[in-house]
Structures are given as structure tokens and as C-alpha cells.
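Field log, afternoon session.

UNIT: design team B
ACTIVITY: writing a sequence onto a fixed backbone
BACKBONE:
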């Protein structure tokens, strides 16, 4: 059930399909960037409309509250706007990949900020988890209700991880990103990412596995 809980948490966000870029979109993106840098605000509006769903989809992997998603999507585009002069373009650094990295970094920064705030002790979380699971067994709740409980527990378990580890777990186990793609988004090597994932899964099993037996 531990695996189920984590997977439920990573998949219960709004499912937005990736944007299929038409042929020539790479050149089109770079033209829009140049136009924005030259003062054409409408060009950035077009960028926003083109990639709003992509950024929302990324942020929605990490946050579930609509107001939070909207806030961090806005932050992502604001950061992108003021960073356009650093966009280099080209096949190896397409605009979708570039703005996705920005969105991931915005989420990472927020997780780091939250880690600096006092959190509920892990022992309390474990007690709550046992109570939730006991309620499931006693009351014979529906699958949907069990899924909500599992999602809440998984979210709290993931919140116990280091910010970069949480980002890594979400990117890889959301089934959207390969190890290479996730490592590139985080800015680490693939071997480092594999080590992080191995360590995280062992940590989750050893510390919280008793909640799912």
C-alpha cells in the first residue's frame, strides 16, 4: 500500500496533456522571445498562452490547491519574463524545456522555504496515519475514500523529504520524465539522481512502511 499511496499522490493532480509543438515552433518561440525583448508585450502574451498549460501541468505535480497552482504558475512566468535575456534557444535548449526548468525551480524554492518553517513532528504524523488506516479497516470505506486518505498520507510523507529529493521523486514517479530528463531539470547527474531515488525509497520504507502493513 505504500507504493499505492505514493503513486496516488503523484497522479491525483489535473491531468493536462503535453502541448504538441507544430513544425517550426522552435523558430517561432525564438522569434517571440526576440520580439518580447524588443518591447512587444503582445509577444509575451502569446508565449503565456502557448505554454500556460505546460507550466500548469508541471506545477500541478507538486501542489494540489488551485490557488497555490495559480500562484506558482504566475511566479514561473514572471521569472521567465525577467530571464528571457538568458534564453539561448536552439535544439538542445528549447523553450518548453527552458520554461519547464524554471517552473521546477520555482516549486523547489517553495519547498525549501517551507522546510525552514516548523513542521508537525513525524511521530504525530505516524500516530495520525495509524488512526486513518484503522478507520479504513473498521468502517470499510469506499475505494475513493481510501484513496483520499492514502493521498494525504503520501503528501505528508513526501513533505518529510529534502526539497530536492521531493522534486526528484515527483518528477520520476509521475511517469512523465525519464531519469535523464529529470536529472537535467534538477541540475544533477543521472547517477546522482539514481542514488537519491534509492536513498529516498529506503528512507520511506524504513520510516513509514509500518503505516501501510
Amino acid at each position: 500500500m505504500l507504493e499505492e499511496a505514493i503513486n496516488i499522490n503523484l497522479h491525483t493532480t489535473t491531468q493536462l496533456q503535453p502541448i504538441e509543438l507544430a513544425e517550426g515552433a522552435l523558430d517561432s518561440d525564438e522569434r517571440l522571445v526576440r520580439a518580447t525583448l524588443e518591447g512587444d508585450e503582445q509577444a509575451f502574451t502569446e508565449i503565456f498562452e502557448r505554454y500556460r498549460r505546460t507550466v500548469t501541468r508541471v506545477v500541478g505535480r507538486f501542489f494540489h490547491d488551485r490557488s497555490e497552482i495559480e500562484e506558482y504558475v504566475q511566479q514561473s512566468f514572471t521569472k521567465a519574463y525577467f530571464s528571457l535575456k538568458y534564453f539561448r534557444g536552439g535544439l538542445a535548449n528549447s523553450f518548453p524545456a527552458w520554461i519547464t526548468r524554471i517552473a521546477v525551480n520555482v516549486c523547489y524554492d517553495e519547498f525549501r522555504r517551507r522546510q525552514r518553517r516548523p513542521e508537525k513532528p513525524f511521530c504525530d504524523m505516524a500516530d495520525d496515519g495509524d488512526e486513518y488506516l484503522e478507520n479504513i479497516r473498521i468502517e470499510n470505506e469506499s475505494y475513493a475514500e481510501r484513496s483520499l486518505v492514502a493521498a494525504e498520507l503520501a503528501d505528508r510523507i513526501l513533505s518529510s523529504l529534502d526539497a530536492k529529493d521531493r522534486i526528484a521523486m515527483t518528477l520520476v514517479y509521475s511517469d512523465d520524465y525519464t531519469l535523464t530528463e529529470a536529472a537535467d531539470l534538477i541540475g544533477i547527474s543521472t547517477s546522482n539522481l539514481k542514488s537519491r531515488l534509492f536513498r529516498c525509497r529506503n528512507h520511506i520504507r524504513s520510516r513509514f512502511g509500518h503505516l501501510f502493513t
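LOG NOTE: The radius of gyration is 19 Å.
NEXT ACTIVITY: expression trials, pending approval
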